[in-house]
Amino acid sequence: MSEHLRTALALAASGVPVLPLQAGKVPIGNCRRCADNACGGRPNMKTPGPCACPAPCHAWAAATTNLHVLTSGPWQRAWQRASAVAYHPGGARLTVVDLDNADAIEWAREMLPATRTVPTTRGQHWIYWGAMPSSNAVRPGVDIKSTMAYARWLSPGTGAMTELPDTVRALAVRKPSTVRPAPHAVAVPAAVGDSECPHRTPTYLERGIAMAEQRITAASTAVHATVYRTFLAVLSAHGRCGCLTDTHIARLFTAAQAKGETARHCTDAWTNARTTLGL
Model-level pTM? Predict the structure, then answer.
């Protein structure tokens, strides 16, 4: 058993979802269809691609605490060529403030409450209890990694972990017009052509939304990933023809929030799914 796999198993056993990284801190596509980015994932496979696998097999969405999954099949082969271990902070209800240089570290020492600190190649990771939306470049040299993101595991770090402060949450807040605290309608392009949209058949659309609600409700682990995949599936089927209404979207958001997701996370997952599909 490799050192990276032993580390991954220890983290998974403590409730931290993990995944293997190859050289360059890039997630490994751990199924044949996604090897060498054949599935068409985002650059360097850092976000889930529109692959045909049963579930996303790379990036943050692949992170798992399932020990059997980690040690069998494609995962077993992936660990043999892994160069590092990564984890999904949001899946463990954590937030990593990634400080890339000395100036960023100095800023954190002045502005943020002390918490567990992990040295990195160029700076430090400050780790807080609590999850929030991830956001890059919130200020010079500072990234936030939590939900729908991954961070490299470097060491347990030092210091007592502190609750996520509002100061950090505020860093990821965009302009008020782009932050919506509740489910909302999303405008989608109309279908091309003059033919009637087949999805306007009430039974077809209702079945699809009901199945999506059931998929989210049935999730017992990896809720973040399940919500994202479900939104992606709904938009793949109905996002280009104008079938979805405020009511349909609100039903999906309500199901996700019943599983503990925040309204902000639902909005982010919906937006990311639209971006992935080019909507």
Answer: 0.59
